[in-house]
Amino acid sequence: MPTLLLQLKGPLQSWATEDGYTHRNTGSLPTKSGVIGLVASALGRARGSDISDLAALRFGVQPVHTGPRLTDFQTMGKRADGKPNPLETKEYLQDSTFTVGLESTDLRLLIRIGAAIQHPVYMPYLGRRACPPAGPIQVGLVDKPLEQAFKGKERIHVETVDGVEAHWDQPANNRVFQARYSNAIDPLFNAVAEAQKKLKP
Predict the structure, then answer these.
(1) How far apart are alpha carbons 60 and 132 in whole angstroms?
(2) Keyword set for this entry (predicted)?
C-alpha cells in the first residue's frame, strides 16, 4: 500500500491539542487535523468543504529533530465595548523537523496531494498561520505501508484502530473532531522482523 511522505520543517510550529481562548498550546508532534488542514489548503479547498477523502488517510509521524518550546505572550487589543482583552499565550516548537506519512489505497489521491504540496493553491503553514515552513515541503511517494515507509531511528507514531494512545484530532466535519488511536513503533523492531523473514527457509 503506498504512502506519501512529507517533511515538515520550520523555525516555528504549533500543533494545538486543546481548544483554548487565552492559552493556545502545542503538542510535541504534528496533529492529523493540522496536517489535513495543510493538505486541504494546498489543494485549494475552501473552509467548510468536504474533506472526508483526506480524513480517511491513515496518518503517521516521526520526529527528526525537536527543538525547545517557546511561549509567546500577546495582548489582543480592545473589545467592541472598549474593554481590554485578556492576555493571551501561545506555545510553539522551535527549529523542529518531522516526517509525516499519509497512507491510502487511492494512489491517484496521494499523487494529487504530492503535486499540490509542491505547487500549493494557498500558502501552507505548520499548525498556525504564523508558522510558515522553512522552505518548500519535501515530498516522497513510496510503495510501502505506513509502518515501513519511514527512515531513521526515532519512534514512529502510527494510526491504528487498536492503538493505545488516543488523540482528539480526527476530522469529522467543520471544526468537529473525533478520537483517533495510534501506537508508537521502534524502527529497530521492524528491521529485526524483516531480517527474520529473510532467514526463514
Answers:
(1) 21
(2) Antiviral defense
Cell numbers placing 55: 480524513
Phi-psi region of 23 (alpha: psi -120 to 50; beta: other; left: phi over 0): beta
User: Under a CB-based contact definition with an 8 Å cutoff, are residues 124 and 41 in contact?
Assistant: yes
Q: Does domain 3-199 have CATH number 3.30.43.10?
A: no
Digit-coded pLDDT (tens) for 8-32: 999 999 999 987 667 889 999 999 9
Pair type for strands 88-103 and 23-24: parallel
**Percentage, residues of the chain above pLDDT 90:** 73
User: β-pairing, 23-24 with 176-185?
Assistant: unpaired
Whole-number Å distance between alpha carbons of 76 and 166: 33
Is the pLDDT at 139 greater than 50, yes or no? yes
Average pLDDT over residues 116-142: 96
Distance, CA of 2 to CA of 91 (rounded, Å): 34
- The beta-carbon contacts of 135-143 under 8 Å, at least 24 apart in sequence, are 135/9, 137/6, 137/7, 137/8, 138/6, 138/7, 139/4, 139/5, 139/6, 139/114, 140/4, 140/5, 141/2, 141/3, 141/4, 141/5, 141/110, 141/111, 141/114, 142/2, 142/3, 142/5, 143/2
pLDDT value of residue 78? 72
Alpha-carbon separation of residue 113 from 16, 43, 72 (angstroms): 23, 7, 33
Write down the domain spans for the chain.
3-199
